[in-house]
Every structure is written in C-alpha cells, then in structure tokens.
Amino acid sequence: MRTNIALFGGIGAFVLLVAVIYAFITLNWATVGSGQELGIEWVGFICLLLTAGLGFMLWWYLRSTAKHQPEVMDADNPEGEIHQMTGNYGEFTPWSWWPLGLGGALAFMFFGFAVDWWVFMFSLIPILFFISGWVLENNRGHYRH
C-alpha cells in the first residue's frame, strides 16, 4: 500500500511540475510588450493540471484508507498464494441479459448524439427500462435475497 501511495503522489507532483514548465514554455512572449493579452496554450495546461489533480486525488484516497488496512496486505506478501487473497467481491447475478440490453440502448443514445436530438430523446425509454430491470433483477425469482 505504501508503494501505491508514493507512486500516485509522485505522479501528481511530476505532472504538476510538467504543467508549470509547459505553461512557461508555451507562453507567447511576443505579446508581452505590445499591450495584447498574454497568451498561454490553455488546453494542454488545463489537461495537465487535471491529470495532476487525478494523481493527487488517488494519493489522498489511498493515504486515507491505509489507516484502516493491516500493515502488510496479502498482495504485499512475496511468499503468499493467490487463494489467500480471496474475499467478498460482491454479489453478481450470472446469466443476466440486462447489461447487454443497456449497452445496446447506450449505443443507440450515442448514435442519437451524432444524428439528432429526437433520436437521443427516444433512446432514453429503453435506457430507463434496462436500468430499472438491472437494479430490480434480484428482487424476485431465483436470485432474490
């Protein structure tokens, strides 16, 4: 866990340094004395800042959750076996067709972005149908709780 914390903190600091250097290099120095607005290439600078923010966000999350984890996790044990890392990965419904239908409905929605707004609005009906079916799938039948 400490390796991941250091890794993402280092990525965030490195990309923040690269963003500052990038802003300095892309600064349009020709406009400084002419009274025009000072120009920076904003798209790359903002994307680098957002990437640094993502690194720092992951660093903060891992650092704050490391307090509740054991000192040495199963994955950090070089002598450990794969079966020692087993745990609760959640409840999954096998043979579910709802995600496939939702994927098709979302593809239809993105097709609507390209074609026209009415196709997008029409795609919301199957999207709501498949989302509600997927959420309520475990409420009845063979897999109910």
Task: Tell me about this structure.
By secondary structure, the protein is mostly helical. The chain has helices spanning 2-25, 42-65, 98-115, 117-135. Helix 1 packs antiparallel against helix 2. It is flat and about 65 Å long. The relative contact order is 0.09.
Mean pLDDT: 85
How would you characterize the largest beta sheet?
none
Total strand count, please?
0
| Count of alpha and pi helical runs | 4
- Encode the helix/strand succession as letters: HHHH
Structural class: mainly alpha
Fraction in helix:
55-70%
Compute the separation of the termini in Å.
35 Å
Quick recap:
With 145 residues, the protein is mainly α. Helix content is 59%, strand content 0%. The mean pLDDT is 85.
Keywords:
mainly alpha; 145 residues; 4 helices
What does the secondary structure layout of this molecule look like, with pairings?
Layout: H1 2-25, H2 42-65, H3 98-115, H4 117-135
Helix pairs in contact: 1-2, 3-4
